[in-house]
What does this fold into?
Amino acid sequence: MKRFTKTHEWIQVENSVGTIGITEYAQEKLGDVVYADLPEVGKTVKKGEILLSLESVKAASDVYAPVSGKVVEVNAALEDKPEIVNKDAEGEGWLVKVEIIDPAELDDLLNEEDYKKLCEEEG
It folds into this structure.
């Protein structure tokens, strides 16, 4: 089950590892992604901290950690083809995988229905 943040990140959890990316809504607002500044494997982040940044033809945008964790994998395909984020933001365009430190933090995230409402409110 995917969970979402109010800053338009998603996380899909399998066992204790969360795959993180930006939402379709976020990639549409961002425009054509031209560079992904991915973190180093092994980096530890706290929930709400900047995890990485994406650069588009419009602007650079920070991506925030939806939960605290340790980066265990980055999507290396984005180094050569950052546009994958635009083509499939919630699939092949995933950004990083983190080993989740505190699974209880997932409870603070939005479900799909609540996230859709948030996007409608933002227009």
